Amino acid sequence: MMAEGLTAMIVIALGVNLFFACEQQLQYQYQNSLQKLAAIRLGKEVSDLYAIKREKVSLTRDGMIAKASSQGVIIYYKGKRLWQVIS
């Protein structure tokens, strides 16, 4: 009787831990997707500005730097290249 209760408690504890681990991973993926979406939007804006001006353009927003030139668009975040489109 006591062993069954202990086994049930272990199974429930494992389930709760698994739930929180999955939730944490989902939060990480959500933040990552928001960052990628912001980078893509900034890249779109800078490419539109380049299409209008026909000269090198740079935009900065929320720590991201987007640069557009005749070679393409590059987006940096904290010195790391997040996205690059070469034309």
Automatic annotation (TrEMBL):
Q: What's the superkingdom here?
A: Bacteria
| Protein name, per record | Competence protein ComGE
